[in-house]
Amino acid sequence: MKRKTRILTIGFYALLLMVAFVFQGMVFPYLRIAGLSPLLLPLVSTGIAVHVGRFAGGVTGLFAGILCDLSLNEPVGLFTIVLTFTGLLVGTLADSVITRSFVSYFLFSIGVLSICAAIQIFPLVYLVGIPLQQLVGTGIWQTVYSLVFTFPIWFFVKALGRRVYQGASPDSSR
Asked: Which end of the chain has less Cβ packing within 10 Å, N or C?
C-alpha cells in the first residue's frame, strides 16, 4: 500500500504543479493587476517542501523551476537552480527545525518570492540599465500579489496530502 500511496501523492502534486503552470503562464498574463502577474510555481514548490519534506521539495522545486523558466522566458536554468535549492533548503528545515504550518509556509513564501523578484530584476538593472529604484517597488508589489495565493495553494497541498495519506492507514492494507 505504501507504493500506491507514493504514486498517488506524486500524481496529485504533479497535477497541482501543472495547474499552477497553466494559471501562471496562460491565464494570469491576461488578468494583470497594475501590469503584474503572480508567481504561483514557487509557492507550490515551497508548500510541498514544507508539507512533505526535503526530497519532495527538491524534486518539486526542480520541475517548478523548469516550468518557471519556460513560462517567464528567463535565462535558461536560473529558476531551475534557485527553486531546486530553495525546495531542498525549506524541506530540510521542515524535516528538522520548523513546524509544518501555514505560518512557516507563508514566511518561507515571502523569502522565496523575494529571491524570485531579485532574479527578475537583476538582468534589467545590469543588462538593460534600468535604475534599481524603479524596479524594487515592482518586485515588492509582485511579491505581495503572489502572496494572495498562499492560502489556496496551502489548502490544496494539505488537502491532497491528507486525502492520499488517509487511504494509507494500517487498517486499509487488507
From this structure: C
